[in-house]
Amino acid sequence: MTKARIVIADDDSIIRMDLKEQLTGLGYQVVGEATDANSAIDLAKLLRPDLVILDVRMPDSEAGKAEGIRAARELTAEKIAPVLLLTAFADQELVESAKEAGVYSYLVKPYRETELLPAIEVALSRFQEFRLLQQENADLKEAIETRKIVERAKGVLMDMHGLKESEAFQRIRKASMDSRKPMRQIAEAILLTRDLDI
Is 130 inside a domain boundary? Predict the structure, then answer.
């Protein structure tokens, strides 16, 4: 199995180098490195990694502002990649901000190397579950919309040809199978024909 592609962002070059070494040792690919939040966002948008690991406070921070949280919020909102947050701070306010930003995992420095793998795998797994739920939701919306269109097309066929509901449905289904087109396309064509006739 191919290990995840990761972008890391920390203003401390020694921490970044150490983290990269740990990640590589665990079999992950570090595909990009950044020293500030804006660069991390740009890199993530460009490289589309599987995970972004962000330090909470980086040099473009104003008065210690948590720029990593801002970056996490943007990456999460745009569904670019899950974010694992690294921080030397564990206060409740920061934890709440991380939750609100949609951070998928959180490690407090100094962390043990043995904590890194589970944190990464949990973040990747949660993001995958989120994507599956999004897809299921989109599929459900599509199915409901298709059903509405097919119902309207059945009504048109029933009115135009004096068919029973089951006969109208069979006609749409047969046309779909014969033409190898989805029932929604057939139903939309029926509705369009009706509109043109009107």
Answer: no
